[in-house]
Specification:
With 413 residues, the chain is an alpha/beta fold. Helix content is 43%, strand content 14%. It has a six-stranded mixed β-sheet, sandwiched between helices. Strands 9-13-12-10-11 form a five-stranded mixed β-sheet. A two-stranded antiparallel ribbon has the order 7-8. Helix 10 crosses helix 11 (204-218), helix 13 (270-277) runs parallel beside helix 15 (296-311) and helix 15 (296-311) packs antiparallel against helix 16.
Length: 413
Amino acid sequence: MSKMNNSDFINIMKERGFVHQITDKENLEKQMITSPIVGYIGFDCTAPSLHVGSLIQIMMLRWFQKTGNKPIVLMGGGTTKIGDPSGKDSARPLLSSEKIRFNKDNIRTIFEKFLKFGAHDSDAIIVDNEDWLEDLNYITFLRDYGSYFSVNKLINLESVKLRLEREQNLSFLEFNYSLLQAFDFLQLYKNYNCKIQMGGSDQWGNIVTGLDLIRKSTSKQAYGLTSPLLTTSSGTKMGKTADGAVWLNSDQLSDWDFWQYWRNTEDLDVIKFLKLFTELPISEINKLKKLKGAEINEAKIILANEVTKLCRSVKAAKNISSSSANLFNKSYTDDNLPSVKVSDSDIKLIDALKMLKFLNTNGEARRLIRANGAKINDVVVNNENYTLSSKDYRNGKVKISSGKKKHGLLILR
């Protein structure tokens, strides 16, 4: 990664749209001009992969390192056992230690694509809060730190206040989450001289609680920076689609479907996403901003390619971009499409659509077929009882399409 000045970080964050709130910006900038600083973002381990909603935080860490500062990835092996109430209407299901460990191991791999790890000053490190939370003595914790937390402030945290206003149950277990996150910040401050915590806007209250704890227990200053809560221009939450979460790990979501998610970005979001999720220079993005009408599709393809390069691989982006062009030209058996291997050619079209995970139920599949939304080798098939046979396969492959954007192959073993 090319090195920039440490103090460039805040300007880059502002210019590219990462900043929602920031504490004592003036002093933070002064400190970053003087020397590189250490900063962290925490990631709980609630699933085997992070999804696109976490990508803005990962990009923040990447820019933090590119400007010469040292990023810490804090894995929430301990806090995942509690559950963050932020943005939740009810408590998260509690996971076993084995499941958390499995999720943690899988999530770690994504950071290796975005950050450089090692022993140099600006090299990233991964730390797990299970290391200090697992054996934390409750009485000692209360004696040492309990007096620094104000219940008055805690019940006014957005995550707490919303649940109370809606009269939705908030367990004492979840209420403790903010205390533990603050304790995390204190541990990282003491052990790694970590000066800044970053996160999404829903973490603002937790971050400020940590700043207060550091100030009261050490008489030192730390900082917080949050990114805006991202929604698409149509109001849907970033990283969620009708088909479920858009996962960052390829074993949770194919490279093809990942690329397509970005290619299908809404027109009004393209420039914003190029700034947040790619490293294209702002000058280039501003040129793309001038594109109108169908030309916007060029910017969408650039967005899909650039994000896929970062998150998956350069090869995946190149192959899928080429495959997408082939699809437009009716090339029916491109090997880069998602595929399922089958041992028998005689498969009902309804079952083929479900096998490729385009639809979940027979009813959905029947409605799609009746509405002329299903294709075999780019030819519409509106017979809901249609069964594939050997004549549909060419070189042992048959292309199945659901609507204009979902395509896959059945491949005979």
